[in-house]
Amino acid sequence: MLNFIYVNKFIAKYFQSSENIDYEHPSKNINPDSPNYRVMLEAIDYIDNMERELVNVVSSDKTKLFARYFNNDSDKTVILFHDVNHDPITQFCCHINYFFNEGYNVLVPYMRGHFLSKAKYHSYGYLESNDVASWVEWTNKRVGTNGSIFLVGIGVGANAICMYSAMDVPSNVKRLLLDSPFLSLKDFVDEIIESDNIKDEDGMKLDIYKSIEKNLGFNIVKSTCIIPIKKCKLPVYFSCLEREGSKVSIYTQTLAAFCPTTVDTLILPCSEFDSDQTYFANRVAYNKFLKKFVSEKGK
């Protein structure tokens, strides 16, 4: 009985998006105590005055997904995939402004289970990788296949792009930027169970694995970034924060080492209270990193 209760709470907490996100008013998602509060508020105020469209696609599993599209009448498009339990406009407020002001169209999808995008559960990148393919296809229909596409992801968004990279990717997808990816869903689940001080004497892990497969429709072992990144043929840029007690920098450096096409890795030191995003740890360094990412020669 204990397993059943814990497993249901686990699935609800970690595989369903939070209801405490204001998608219509992104500025309300900013922590007023954050040292980046004013910068993010100014960035969102700027975005609020930009023209944008609410667009949608239907993914391969018939899930209807939505995105904000900032049309810059360009043949270059950046697609930004956010982390779970985040509003993408809030999380990418500075990215949107940077890329748009550099002359790029900017497409900002809402991951499955967020805002108007359907699906009861998100899958930490496995199902979302097909959603990446759907948005790339949408972009090519809208802008044309002669245009260039750049993919940027944070957290689960980075995982989705990573898994997508092993698929049949169109030749006009030029580069990938993976910010704070993790290695596999299994590792993630195991770490949470360990942090909750749950002993696995009664097969708790196996029960959770089975519940994920039942509810989400895939085996947890398949949700790994290591296998697809080994097959990646596109130039990849990695970035993350380095914070005491966090394994994110270890995950990022591990994937970068496995990736045969790694171009650059940016790891920025950060204290617990400095920032929750790589971008804000050092904005000057990160903007240079973004400029290198989208440049013609990657320099």
Task: Tell me what the structure shows.
The longest helix has 16 residues, at 128-143. The chain is built from twelve helices and eight strands. An eight-stranded mixed β-sheet has the order 1-2-4-3-5-6-7-8, sandwiched between helices. The mean pLDDT is 90. 40% of the residues lie in helices and 18% in strands. The protein is of the alpha/beta class. The chain is globular.
Query: Tell me, what's the shape?
Result: globular
Query: Which sequence of SSEs, written as H and E, runs from N to C?
Result: HHEEEHHEHEHEHHHEHEHH
Compute the number of strand runs: 8
Q: What is the rounded Rg?
A: 19 Å
In terms of structural class, how would the helical and strand content be classed? alpha/beta
As a percent range, the share of strand residues is 15-25%
Proportion of residues in helical segments? 40-55%
Which residue ranges are poorly predicted, with pLDDT under 50 across at least 5 consecutive positions?
Answer: none
Terminal-residue CA separation: 57 Å
> Within the largest sheet, what's the order of strands?
1-2-4-3-5-6-7-8
Give me the number of helical elements: 12
Average pLDDT, to the nearest integer?
A: 90
Biggest beta sheet summary:
8 strands, mixed
